[in-house]
Amino acid sequence: LAWTLRPAPLRYLLVVALTLLALFTGFGLFLGVAVPLLLALEVVWARRHRTPREAVAPLLAGVGLAAGWALFFVGYRSASVPPELANAHPAWSDYPVFVALQFGNLFGVRGTEWGSRLAGFVALAALLVVAVCALRRWLGEPAANDTSFARTVLLLILFSVLFAVGSSVGRVLLGLEGARACRYLPLLMPAALGLHLWLAQRASPRLRVLFVLILAATCLPWRERRDARRYAKGKAAWVQAYLATGDVDKANGWAKFPIFPGGPAATRAPLQTGLDWLERNQFSFFRDRAAAGP
To answer: Which of 61, 64, 135, 233 could connect to 12 by a Cys-Cys bridge, CB 3.0–4.6 Å?
Structure first.
């Protein structure tokens, strides 16, 4: 909403402040990638439709975000990746499929078979088309009220797409089933909101009604809550079992909740290696155990 404010100084001040806060909130850091891109486009738009002087404010905002990124890396702790994980290379075709499956899951399409993949690619293509349309309207329209709408839609879609791409790089090794994780949905929902806003403003009434019906038919909240409860309970049980045994197979059996059951066999050794690495560095649930003490 900060992007819709008319006074430029207040708009950029809030944009920078909110982006800096998001930068330190885990996956919110993708906003720190999307916003500088929009600020660069703001500079292009100001120079094209206004005066070079009006490009100063987004430039200063970009400098502020650069300083925020520098602060982010102060004291940043980086550990070397285990060779088994660094040398594991999934097929390149798995990355776009993983991204598409996330957006298919966003609209209620489960599974990893060809039908789910096709639905995911259709959803991703629709989002990218809307993003391009918003970009063209933004850069080609000198009216301030029109640009505020277009850049808001573009930011919502861009954030979710950047997150989906980033998560595929880190998670595709564990199998395409990982794209169905319910914890990804809140970070993909901005794209659905951007699509809804664009359709509400630009599409015909019939197309808007069709989109609402699709959302109502696919995004059943009680189903998501059921899956989330099952996942949270199973994962908590698995963590306790693994902390007690130190063995993936035993933890899978004790908790009756196998981790990444759909992943390829080649991921089993990297999974154990990754867990050993997390334990050595006291990351993830091993950090909680260390804090609790003996």
So the answer is: 61
pLDDT tens digits along 176-215: 888 888 788 889 999 988 988 888 887 778 888 887 777 7
Q: Which two tokens stand for residue 105?
A: 């899951």
First to last CA, the chain: 48
Cα angle vertex 16, ends 196, 131, to 5°?
A: 30
Q: Are 201 and 149 in contact (CB under 8 A)?
A: yes
Helix (H) or strand (E) holding 102: helix 94-106
| CB environment 21-60: b (16+ within 10 A), e (fewer) | ebbeeebbbbbbbbbbebbebbbebbeeeeeeeebebbee
What are the distances in angstroms from CA 238 to CA 2, 248, 259, 262, 269?
42, 9, 8, 17, 18
Q: Is the separation of the CB atoms in 138 and 154 below 8 Å?
A: yes
Cβ within 8 Å of residue 265, ≥6 positions away? none
The tokens of 52 are what? 């070079």
Q: Determine the average pLDDT of the residues in 70-90.
A: 69
Q: Is residue 267 within 8 Å of 173, Cβ to Cβ? A: yes
Residue 102's pLDDT band (cuts 50, 70, 90):
very high
pTM of the full predicted structure?
0.72
Within 10 Å of residue 12's Cβ, how many Cβ atoms?
Answer: 22
Question: Average pLDDT of 119-142?
Answer: 88
CA atoms of 242 and 115, how far apart (whole Å): 35
Tokens of 76: 């940043």
Contact in structure between 38 and 148 (CB atoms under 8 Å): no
The residue written with tokens 């169905």 in the block is 180
The DSSP 8-state label assigned to residue 270 in this structure reads H
Rounded to a whole number of angstroms, the CA Rg of the chain reads: 22
